[in-house]
Write a structure and sequence with these properties.
The structure holds two protein chains of two kinds. By secondary structure, chain A is α/β, with parallel strands linked by helices. Chain A has one domain (7-14, 22-280): Alpha-Beta Barrel (TIM Barrel). Chain A has helices at residues 7-15, 43-53, 63-67, 74-82, 100-109, 121-124, 134-143, 162-171, 187-196, 213-221, 237-246, 251-266, 270-275, and strands at residues 23-28, 55-60, 87-92, 114-119, 146-152, 176-184, 200-203, 226-227. Chain B is an alpha/beta fold. Helix content of chain B is 43%, strand content 16%. Chain B contains eleven helices and eight strands. Chain B has helices spanning 25-35, 46-49, 52-63, 86-95, 105-108, 114-127, 141-150, 167-176, 192-200, 217-224, 230-246; strands at 4-10, 39-44, 69-74, 98-102, 131-135, 156-160, 180-183, 205-206. The two termini of chain B are 31 Å apart. The chains are: A alpha/beta, B alpha/beta. Chain A binds chain B through residues 1-4, 9, 12-13, 16, 35-40, 45-46, 49, 52-53, 187, 206, 208-213, 215-216, 230, 232-247, and chain B through 18-20, 34-36, 163-168, 186, 188-195, 210-222, 224-225, 227.
């Protein structure tokens, strides 16, 4: 049964979900993707998965928001409007296609939809610190938005590696920088940044299929700045949960990762305090 | 539910530094016990990085005295006589608890083609020996299609090189060839198991974890909670691979 020592494991094993352990996923997507087939990529199909795991909140950026800029992120806006209690969106930023004025208006006028920014610098071949983004970062810094950034530094990246992220978090201390994939493979450097900068968090998508990586991050930085994420609808949420249940740590650390760290991070937002069951705040 | 893990790798890899290596078979067995994995098909890192003959022998040494592990041997064209000759192979496999072959042409430096592999492919077909092939790891799909067009009855256990959703690549094999199976250690696609079962039936899927590179629990929980019948789960978890192994004609 994976791990007999854990009460959480027993519950997830039996029921697939644990009522005392809601989950917040900080790294989601939505809609189809050109390079692979994703069976459950509609909001409704994703909600089905979310129900099965007690995944209460998914913060996502749709593939079409990232890769089909002419759609103006409308599908993400529609999904959040339709299911405001379960989805919030990251605003997709891509310097190749950014319309400074119109995109800033879109972001600012939909503050109930977009709770942060999202970027894939390696994909777009534009650095996190590209000057084109400056106005958006200043807006995010002044409003305390999240910033989920694809971080991967193996092979060494010119766009979203350790060096670029470190420059960014120093410059924008009020943006919560969520290092998507935790600088994959540069685990020690990821831990150093996490321990050095209070506004930098590590996120677990693609970390969890690498046995030993989470153990190393826990050893170096503890469990309080690690956020759960799965790339849903790419990867089965139960796979992520099961891997964390397999990793040697107390259930209290698992709860930090599954939801407590997220609650602490999001509790500054009015929308979250209205949304999230009070019984879980402060747990 | 009994779990039979079709993809366990362990040993000491000279050219890479695993974060949490399972260095020997004793560690594998104790880890399996802790996670609730009853049986496994195992390979060693040394088969990929050391030598084919030595690597195969190390696996045999580890599994032949166990009652819940079966080994996988690497197969290379027989022209260099580095592994048992085809006529001796079945006996050697039986003695050593070897229940599958693997073809790794990119690492072992040969062509995945019917001609150089002909004696092995014919033997595999006659004796129902499963052949593990990892799609994407230097395997050109068309080469595999060519082989299967010639010998469609081959028992092939496909797996994926990485976690990138692979339905477009895998589904044609599962549908077009009666004895192609898919080992799911890298298949993390949300809702994927449910769709594959609906597409080709649970009999085509095999449980595997990819331990020591991955934890046991991810795929275990994914299968346990998949929205398919308990009967289908049990087929995937262990019954399919047991049936494949029991079908090998060693004698």
């Amino acid at each position: 049964m994976i791990n007999d020592d854990s009460q959480l494991t027993k519950t997830f094993w039996q029921y697939g979900r644990d009522e005392s352990c809601p989950i917040i996923d900080f790294h989601g997507h939505m809609s189809e993707l050109v390079s692979c087939y994703l069976p459950r990529c509609t909001p409704e199909a994703m909600l089905k998965t979310m129900e099965q795991c007690n995944l209460q909140l998914l913060i996502f950026c749709g593939h079409d928001a990232l890769f089909i800029p002419c759609l103006r992120q409308q599908n993400d806006i529609d999904a959040v409007r339709k299911y405001p209690d379960r989805f919030k969106a990251y605003f997709a930023l891509n310097a190749n296609t950014l319309d400074d004025k119109a995109d800033m208006e879109l972001l600012a006028q939909n503050s109930d939809i977009f709770v942060g920014l999202k970027m894939l610098p390696d994909y777009f071949k534009r650095s996190i610190n590209d000057p084109k983004y400056q106005a958006f970062y200043e807006y995010a810094n002044s409003t305390g938005l999240l910033f989920l950034c694809h971080t991967w530094d193996n092979p060494k990246s010119l766009y979203n590696g350790i060096a670029q992220a470190e420059e960014f978090v120093q410059k924008y201390p009020d943006i919560t920088f969520i290092a998507g994939h935790s600088f994959h493979n540069k685990w020690l450097e990821a831990a150093r940044l996490c321990n050095t900068y209070s506004n930098l968090y590590l996120e677990l998508t693609a970390v969890l299929d690498d046995r030993g990586a989470l153990e190393l991050l826990l050893e170096k930085c503890g469990s309080k700045k690690i956020l759960f994420g799965t790339d849903l609808p790419w990867f089965d949420t139960h796979h992520g949960i099961g891997t964390i249940l397999s990793t040697d740590m107390p259930d209290e650390d698992r709860k930090n990762i599954f939801f407590r760290n997220g609650v602490r991070l999001l509790n500054k937002f009015d929308w979250f305090r209205k949304l999230w069951p009070q019984k879980f705040i402060g747990l | 539910m009994e779990f039979f893990d079709c993809n366990i790798l362990y040993g000491m890899a000279a050219t890479k530094c695993n974060l949490m290596p399972a260095l020997d078979v004793q560690f594998v067995l104790s880890s399996m016990k802790h996670a609730g994995i009853a049986k496994a098909l195992v390979r060693r890192e040394e088969q990929f990085i050391g030598g084919v003959g030595i690597g195969n022998q190390l696996v045999a040494n580890d599994v032949k005295e166990t009652d819940n592990l079966w080994g996988v041997w690497s197969i290379i064209p027989d022209y260099t006589h580095e592994i048992p000759e085809p006529e001796m192979m079945l006996t050697q496999m039986k003695v050593n608890r070897i229940a599958a072959w693997q073809l790794v042409p990119n690492i072992h430096c040969f062509s995945l083609h019917y001609r150089p592999l002909k004696p092995w492919l014919e033997l595999a077909c006659r004796s129902a020996i499963p052949i593990i092939i990892k799609l994407g790891s230097g395997i050109i799909n068309s080469a595999l299609y060519d082989i299967l067009e010639k010998i469609p009855e081959l028992v092939i256990i496909l797996s994926s090189e990485n976690v990138w959703p692979c339905d477009r690549n895998v589904r044609p094999f599962l549908k077009e060839f009666p004895n192609c199976y898919f080992e799911i250690s890298q298949y993390l696609t949300d809702g994927g198991i449910e769709e594959l079962v609906s597409f080709c039936g649970a009999k085509k899927l095999l449980f595997g974890t990819g331990f020591h590179q991955a934890h046991f629990g991810g795929i275990m929980l994914m299968l346990r909670q998949a929205q398919i019948s308990e009967v289908d789960k049990q087929l995937i978890a262990s019954k399919n691979i047991i049936s494949i192994i029991e079908s090998i004609k060693y004698d």
